[in-house]
C-alpha cells in the first residue's frame, strides 16, 4: 500500500513538472513573452553547454561551494563560542543584549558593499557576508540550548564534584552541539545564500557572477539556467545535510522517551 502511494505521489509530481514545462514552452513561442520568461529548451541547452560542451561552470561552482563551506565552518565556530560565553555569563549577556538584537535585525545584505571595500571583490568578502547569516542562527540555537540544560542534571553533576570546566565539557557543550545539529539545514542554506548573493553583488568568479553577467546582457535564458543550477546545488546540499544529521543525531532519544525512563 505504501509502495503504491509512493508511486502515485511520484507520478503526480512528475505530471505537475511536465505540465509547468509544457505551459512555459507554449507561452515562450511568443518572442515578446520569451524575452521576459525565457525558453525551456534554450535554458536546458545552456545548462548542457556549461556542464558538457564548454565545461566551464565547474570552476565557478567550486568557488561558490568553497565560500559556502568556509562561511558555514567559521560562522558555526564563532556562533558556538559566543553562544556558550553569553549563556554562561549573564552579566555580559545583559550588556550585549541590545547590540546583538540590533545587529540581528539589520538586513545583512546591506553589509555587502562594506565587505567589498574592506576585503575587495574576492572570496573573502563573500565569505564574510555569509558568515553574518550563519552566525546568528548558530548563536541563538546554542544560547537557547545551554539555557535549557536541566537544573536537575546540573545539580547532580555538582553534587558529584564536577568543576566548571567539566560541566562545560560534559553538560553544556553536548547540549549546545545538539542544538547546532538541529539548525544544520538553516545554517548551511544561509551560507549558500550568502555566498551567491555576495557574488551577485560584485565578484569575478562564482555562479552568482555568471548570473550577473547574463543579466547585464539581458540574457534571460542564462539567468534562469544559473537559477536552475543553484537550485539543484541547494537540493543536493540539503540532502547531504539530512544524511549527516541522521547519522549524528542517532544517539538522541525521541520525544517522549526520556519521560519513560
Structural overview:
The structure is a single chain. This protein has 2 domains: 1-37; 39-250, Orthogonal Bundle (MetI-like fold). 83% of the residues lie in helices and 0% in strands. It contains 13 helices and no strands. The two termini are 35 Å apart.
Radius of gyration (CA) equals 23 Å
- Report the total helices: 13
How many structural domains? Answer: 2
| CATH third-level topology of the largest domain | MetI-like fold
Q: Shape, please? A: globular
User: What is the CATH superfamily classification of the largest domain?
Assistant: MetI-like
CATH top level of the largest domain is: Mainly Alpha
Which structural class do the helices and strands define? mainly alpha
Write the CATH architecture name of the largest domain.
Answer: Orthogonal Bundle
**What profile does the largest beta sheet have?**
none
Alpha carbon gap, first and last residue: 35 Å
- Residues in helix, %: over 70%
Taken as a percent bin, the fraction of beta residues is under 5%
Amino acid at each position: 500500500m505504501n509502495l503504491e502511494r509512493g508511486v502515485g505521489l511520484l507520478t503526480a509530481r512528475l505530471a505537475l513538472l511536465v505540465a509547468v514545462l509544457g505551459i512555459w514552452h507554449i507561452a515562450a513561442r511568443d518572442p515578446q513573452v520569451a524575452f521576459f520568461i525565457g525558453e525551456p529548451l534554450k535554458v536546458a541547452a545552456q545548462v548542457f553547454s556549461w556542464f558538457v560542451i564548454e565545461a566551464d561552470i565547474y570552476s565557478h561552482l567550486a568557488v561558490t561551494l568553497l565560500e559556502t563551506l568556509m562561511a558555514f565552518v567559521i560562522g558555526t565556530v564563532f556562533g558556538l563560542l559566543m553562544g556558550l560565553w553569553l549563556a554562561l555569563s549573564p552579566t555580559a549577556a545583559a550588556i550585549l543584549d541590545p547590540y546583538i538584537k540590533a545587529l540581528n535585525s539589520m538586513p545583512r545584505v546591506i553589509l555587502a558593499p562594506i565587505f567589498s571595500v574592506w576585503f575587495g571583490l574576492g572570496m573573502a568578502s563573500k565569505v564574510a557576508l555569509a558568515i553574518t547569516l550563519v552566525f546568528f542562527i548558530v548563536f541563538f540555537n546554542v544560547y537557547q540550548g545551554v539555557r535549557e540544560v536541566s537544573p536537575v542534571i546540573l545539580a547532580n553533576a555538582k553534587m558529584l564534584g564536577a568543576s566548571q570546566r567539566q560541566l562545560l565539557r560534559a553538560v553544556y557543550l553536548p547540549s549546545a552541539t545538539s542544538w547546532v545539529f538541529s539548525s544544520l539545514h538553516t545554517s548551511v542554506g544561509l551560507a549558500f545564500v550568502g555566498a551567491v548573493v555576495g557574488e551577485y553583488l560584485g565578484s569575478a568568479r562564482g555562479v552568482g557572477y555568471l548570473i550577473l553577467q547574463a543579466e547585464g546582457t539581458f540574457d534571460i535564458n542564462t539567468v534562469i539556467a544559473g537559477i536552475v543550477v543553484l537550485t539543484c546545488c541547494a537540493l543536493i546540499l540539503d540532502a547531504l545535510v539530512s544524511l549527516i544529521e541522521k547519522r549524528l543525531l542517532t544517539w538522541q532519544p525521541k520525544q517522549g522517551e526520556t519521560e519513560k525512563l
